[in-house]
Structure to design on (424 residues):
């Protein structure tokens, strides 16, 4: 399992691995928003949590179609399926590698970009915490979507259409927690629901992903 | 230890291609599968490797014993030869890759990126992967594609060494490898008659 994690991270940071893809997209979106909506600081700080969350979610989505497609094309998935490692574990590790190479950089960049969005001071901690709790769910659900569309050429569109509805609960509670945090209100309810969504998807999704991947490998 | 295949019926795209295939493979034996293109050799090997379900029949003794090698080698272009091999060794719980490098003459290439290798060198690396799995049953689909004569001899020597140490090999190939312990099975007589509706329509969609 450790070998697979190290290999995936190493492949992501080497040339052509697409490590910076999600981060660059996030950066572009958040830098562009103040230009588009105007320099009204009150409005910006009001929409900041939601815009930062949408940016992070779309940046996550952008890197999903590479998650399993490359391993499928070069035959690695067939060989992994015959390896002693259960497919459920292999897919969990791949989701973890995706989170480390995509989710974690977004979480680290979010407070810096929050400055551009004039995020209120008390909101920074809650924004980072909500992303920390929510982005693992995005990676795990995304792995399921990638497993579902792995055999399909140019499956990126289908993948987005399938995965986006599944992302909605995470987005609602994540953005709500960040918004309440920025407004100085009580964040416990959305934060607990967000944590619950992440815990449930991490526990259950790998089994669904492995089941659909087995069907796709036939 | 025996690999026993009994009355195996296999399907491709929901239609049965081979029916009632039976054979047994003992430790130290190799079986060469022959048959024209499209007859179902790859499907048979994938079924035995557990990558797809059979319509009927059983495969005994294959669970967690098989090292499978297909047309694609599962190599990453941006990893070096030794990184690729070490990864597969660790997945299979092994650590030593020096024997595999030596058996397929890859020592001088061990630090090159797999993406810079020629087709034949990539194939050798893909076959070297078999040695680091530590699995007793090798299931190989056209292993000699893009290999030159010297590399084929290298491969045949690796298979013979594997058989001598109590392993087994199931190989679909069209060329003569010159392996003494090998029996040949022509799968042509097992071609399924498609007038029997064996594959349900659901299978075709899944």
């Amino acid at each position: 399992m450790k070998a697979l994690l190290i290999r995936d991270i190493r492949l992501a940071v080497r040339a052509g691995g697409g490590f910076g893809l999600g981060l660059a997209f996030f950066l572009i979106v958040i830098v562009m928003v103040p230009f588009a909506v105007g320099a009204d600081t009150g409005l910006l700080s009001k929409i900041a949590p939601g815009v930062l969350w949408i940016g992070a979610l779309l940046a996550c989505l952008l890197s999903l179609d590479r998650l399993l497609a490359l391993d499928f094309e070069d035959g690695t998935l067939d060989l992994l399926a015959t390896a002693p490692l259960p497919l459920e574990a292999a897919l969990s590790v791949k989701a973890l590698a995706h989170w480390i190479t995509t989710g974690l950089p977004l979480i680290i960049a979010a407070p810096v970009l929050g400055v551009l969005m004039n995020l209120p001071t008390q909101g920074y901690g809650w924004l980072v915490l909500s992303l920390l709790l929510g982005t693992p769910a995005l990676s795990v659900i995304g792995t399921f979507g990638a497993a579902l569309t792995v055999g399909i050429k140019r499956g990126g569109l289908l993948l987005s259409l399938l995965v986006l509805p599944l992302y909605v609960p995470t987005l609602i509670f994540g953005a709500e927690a960040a918004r309440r945090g920025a407004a100085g209100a009580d964040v416990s309810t959305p934060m607990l629901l967000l944590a619950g969504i992440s815990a449930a998807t991490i526990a259950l999704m790998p089994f669904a992903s492995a089941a659909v991947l087995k069907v796709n490998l036939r | 230890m025996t690999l026993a295949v009994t009355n195996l019926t296999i399907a491709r795209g929901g239609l049965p291609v081979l029916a009632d295939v039976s054979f047994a493979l003992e430790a130290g034996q190799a079986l060469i599968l022959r048959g024209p293109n499209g007859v179902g050799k790859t499907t048979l090997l994938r079924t035995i490797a557990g990558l797809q379900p059979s319509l009927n029949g059983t495969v005994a003794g294959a669970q967690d014993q098989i090292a499978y090698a297909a047309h694609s080698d599962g190599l990453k272009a941006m990893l070096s030869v030794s990184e690729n091999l070490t990864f597969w060794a660790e997945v299979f719980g092994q650590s030593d890759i020096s024997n595999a490098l030596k058996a397929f003459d890859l020592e001088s290439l061990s630090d090159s990126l797999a993406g810079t290798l020629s087709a034949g060198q990539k194939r050798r690396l893909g076959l070297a992967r078999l040695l680091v799995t530590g699995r007793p049953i090798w299931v190989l689909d056209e292993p000699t594609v893009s290999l030159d004569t010297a590399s084929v001899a290298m491969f045949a020597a690796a298979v013979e060494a594997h058989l001598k140490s109590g392993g087994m090999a199931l190989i679909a190939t069209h060329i003569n490898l010159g392996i003494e312990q090998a029996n040949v099975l022509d799968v042509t007589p097992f071609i399924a008659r498609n007038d029997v509706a064996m594959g349900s329509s659901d299978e075709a969609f899944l």
Remarks:
- Residues 45-217 of chain A form one domain.
- Residues 87-116 of chain A form the longest helix (30 residues).
- Residues 69 and 140 of chain A are 16 Å apart (CA to CA).
- The radius of gyration of chain A is 18 Å.
